């Protein structure tokens, strides 16, 4: 086995390990967080329901159900073998995913407005919802124009934001577990820090993936074919889809 094929195998293994962890966490968090909003009973809600707003629980339910669906569908859309084997299924799931994101994001704007949580976390939710809608719109527009590689970039960004629902809860659970070691640490501070950290870290990880798995292979191909000087973004509108 050559060094190149060895590193290809290692990269594939690493990709599948990350994919597996992402899928398991996405399904796990959707399975844990969404059911309280299927019952129709506001008392089952994990966040306090605003007693002055009759629609608050409904907005949480309309947010959580499609949010959970997007969380579960997302990882499967990144598997190139599935895309190649059944492009129609990829398109169908892609449409369901994007519609789910739009519905969940709009409902989350209401849920944030009615929320009894603090100002800082609500600002984080507003920013997250707007970025969620923007990246979904870009992902849709690029694929309608046939810009496959750019579509992939925007979908990585969009799913990283969807996945903030997972990392938020991981940070929150961790924060609550260590709370007793930090006297004076309030729940609200842990919630705020978890919300902001989930956005920041996920965005950084997504950008790392975009550079390493999408831009770097394009640059390598260009170098190996000894093409003329690269034009920034030129290859991103092509149909090349590097990665597993
Ligand atoms: C990424 C964009 C998202 C935004 C902007 C967002 C926003 C919000 C907001 C504002 C609330 C109310 C929180 C409060 O009152 O303190 C909330 C709660 C909730 N969200 Fe999201 N969310 C997002 C993604 C998701 C996803 C992908 C899921 C999928 C599971 C999800 C599931 C839930 C659930 C179940 C609740 C109720 C609180 C709980 O039971 O933990 N959210 N979200």
Structure description:
With 244 residues, the chain is mainly α. The chain has one domain. It has 8 helices and no strands. The longest helix is centred in the C-terminal third of the chain and has 38 residues. It binds protoporphyrin IX containing FE (HEM). Protoporphyrin IX containing FE (HEM) binds next to helix 1, helix 2, helix 4, helix 5 and helix 6. The site of protoporphyrin IX containing FE has 28 residues, from helix 1, helix 2, helix 4, helix 5 and helix 6.
Q: Structural class of the helices, strands and pairings? A: mainly alpha
Helical stretch count? 8
H/E element order:
HHHHHHHH
Q: Oligomeric status of the shown chains?
A: single chain
Largest sheet entry? none
> What's the alpha carbon Rg, rounded to whole Å?
20 Å
Average pLDDT level: 91
Q: Give a count of the beta strands, DSSP E runs of length 2 or more.
A: 0
- Ligand types: protoporphyrin IX containing FE
Number of domains: 1
Helicity, as a percent range: over 70%
Strand content: under 5%
Shape field: globular
Distance between the termini: 20 Å
Region (Disordered): 225-244
InterPro entries: DUF2306_membrane
Keywords: Membrane, Transmembrane, Transmembrane helix
Transmembrane segments: 14-34, 54-80, 92-113, 119-137, 158-178, 190-211
């Amino acid at each position: 086995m050559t060094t190149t094929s060895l590193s290809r195998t290692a990269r594939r293994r690493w990709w599948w390990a990350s994919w597996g962890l992402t899928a398991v966490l996405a399904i796990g968090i959707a399975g844990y967080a969404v059911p309280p909003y299927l019952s129709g009973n506001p008392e089952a809600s994990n966040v306090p329901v605003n007693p002055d707003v009759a629609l608050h629980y409904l907005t949480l339910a309309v947010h959580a159900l499609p949010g959970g669906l997007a969380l579960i569908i997302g990882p499967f859309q990144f598997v190139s073998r599935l895309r190649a084997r059944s492009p129609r299924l990829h398109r169908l799931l892609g449409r369901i995913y994007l519609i789910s994101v739009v519905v969940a994001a709009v409902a989350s704007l209401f849920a944030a407005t009615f929320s009894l949580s603090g100002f800082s976390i609500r600002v984080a939710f507003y920013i997250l919802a707007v970025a969620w809608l923007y990246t979904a719109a870009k992902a849709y527009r690029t694929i309608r124009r046939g810009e496959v590689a750019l579509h992939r970039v925007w979908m990585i960004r969009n799913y990283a934001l969807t996945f903030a629902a997972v990392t938020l809860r991981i940070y929150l659970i961790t924060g609550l577990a260590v709370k007793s070691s930090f006297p004076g640490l309030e729940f609200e501070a842990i919630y705020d820090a978890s919300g902001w950290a989930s956005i920041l870290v996920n965005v950084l990880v997504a950008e790392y993936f975009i550079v390493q798995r999408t831009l770097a292979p394009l640059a390598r191909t260009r170098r190996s074919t000894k093409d003329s000087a690269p034009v920034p973004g030129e290859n991103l509108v092509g149909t090349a889809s590097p990665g597993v």
